[in-house]
Specification:
The chain is mainly α and 298 residues long. It contains 13 helices and four strands. The protein has two domains: 146 residues, no CATH class; 114 residues. The strands form two sheets. Strands 1-2 form a two-stranded antiparallel ribbon.
């Protein structure tokens, strides 16, 4: 009996240790200071919004490249994202105070973006690409939040995710983050300012790797095969590797603006949303993204 008692104590201690490891993280003091000290720039916030592809997930289902830009700024949510772990339903992220995120503070928003943690202290699923956004500068997050306040509120209620057990339990996400969440860049530092700007746009904001990089069994990105192509989460075909080594930087930049490939084909699938967002960016940002992608193969 004494031995059983010690085993129970050891099991409880181990469970407590796992709970401690998996607890939601808080913003570092330096990040909080940077957020509070920054004077918001809504113009830059708009630039960050399009670079981050926020409307690609949070706009109402059915809104696409043919619709006016204003329609893509209504972040009502509702899109269904199929995955091997179940179906994630994108929430309302409009400034509506009841059904959206209008009651959040800047620090709530930053904690969600950078750490994947809700205002209530729950882990978000990585269908929300905070694994990329963790690299974003606090000042850009503050600017994005300032721009967010200018968007129209929408009172569409958010729907629950449709996930089977055990993926419906969020507690294990803390352990998942220990293995998969870090702010290190993939492409090493260089002296090329254009490539470094492109690295920030792709690796910190654009979350291109979330689709174009294969995943391990736990659903984390396989960093050793960065941008090497991956199965389509919907089960239909594969997402290609990028960049196509035959495409020049000029080809890539032109494609991100027009949706036309060098082979006179036209963008399709989920890339139509990506191109519609990239087209809102200044030309120098698309050129920087192209320079970064070429740096991966040159």
């Amino acid at each position: 009996m004494a031995r059983l008692g010690w085993l129970v104590v050891a099991a409880l201690a181990f469970a407590a240790f796992l709970w401690w490891l998996a607890r939601p993280a808080d913003l570092p003091a330096a990040t909080r200071t940077a957020l509070q000290a920054h004077s918001p720039d809504t113009a830059n916030g708009a630039r960050i919004f399009w670079a981050s592809g926020c409307a690609g997930c949070h706009a109402r289902p059915g809104i696409g490249a043919a619709d006016p830009v204003e329609a893509r700024l209504v972040l009502a949510g509702g899109r269904r994202l199929e995955s091997p772990f179940g179906t994630f339903v994108v929430p309302n992220a409009s400034p509506d105070p009841e059904h959206g995120i209008g009651a959040w503070s800047l620090e709530d928003f930053a904690r969600a973006m950078l750490l994947g943690v809700s205002p209530g202290g729950a882990h978000y699923y990585p269908a929300f690409p905070y694994t990329t956004y963790i690299r974003a500068r606090p000042e850009d997050v503050a600017d994005l939040w300032a721009f967010w306040q200018t968007l129209p509120p929408d009172d569409t209620p958010s729907a629950a995710h449709e996930l089977p057990f055990p993926f419906s339990l969020r507690g294990g996400l803390g352990l998942w983050k220990l293995l998969n969440l870090n702010d290190e860049y993939v492409l090493p530092e260089t002296d090329d300012d254009q490539v470094m700007r492109g690295r920030y746009l792709v690796e910190a904001l654009g979350h291109c790797a979330e689709c174009h990089t294969p995943r391990n069994l736990a659903g984390g990105l396989d960093m050793a095969r960065w941008m090497a192509g991956a199965p389509n989460p919907s089960g239909e075909g594969r997402i290609p590797p990028i960049p196509d080594p035959r495409w020049s930087a000029e080809d890539i930049a032109a494609y991100l603006f027009s949706g036309f490939t060098p082979d006179f084909d036209v963008v399709g699938g989920s890339m139509t949303d990506v191109v519609s967002h990239m087209a809102q960016l200044p030309a120098e940002d698309r050129a920087a993204i192209a320079a970064y992608l070429r740096a991966l193969v040159d």
